[in-house]
Amino acid sequence: MSQSLASAGPAAAPTAEVVITGDLGRPARLTVPDLASWPQHTARVAFECATDGMRYHRFTGPLLHDVLADAAPAFDPARRKDRLRFLIAVRGADGHHALLSWAEIDPDFGRAPVLLAVTLDGTGLDRVGPQLVLPQDRCGGRHISGIDAIRVDGGYAGAITAPRGPAPATPGRG
Questions:
Q1: CA 81 to CA 133: how far, in whole Å?
Q2: pTM of the model
Q3: Which of 77, 72, 61, 63 is nearest to 20 (CA)?
Q4: Is the Cβ–Cβ distance between 98 and 106 less than 8 Å?
């Protein structure tokens, strides 16, 4: 016989989930335990906060590059350095956003060790979600807590056009 909800004991809090979408061959939904199964890296950071001074933390988690590369970004092999046009938008459950370029995290270019942290100072982040950690950022401005969405976007390349030939004359200058 089934138990009533009231007598079943405390309900387990739902596990936070990150939805990875965009120009990808394999979009994904990942939890902190999913991310903990990836090779883990550690980052010790010192964020210089304008209001609170220095804050020191230790984060562990997989590299953002590794997780997103596994989602198969739709790079066009016929276009030279196509991955340089891709942007990565990260959103936290609290509404904070950060934007990175693929080139920042790509080992062939910027090689920044950006983490999707699954622990903060030894405490698991299962219930609140992973955190975006850019150890190279001085003040932690792009640090995002409780990530709920990551979008990889390479679709804007056609919007950038450069004029051909000599620069147009500017009226009134000369």
A1: 26
A2: 0.81
A3: 72
A4: no
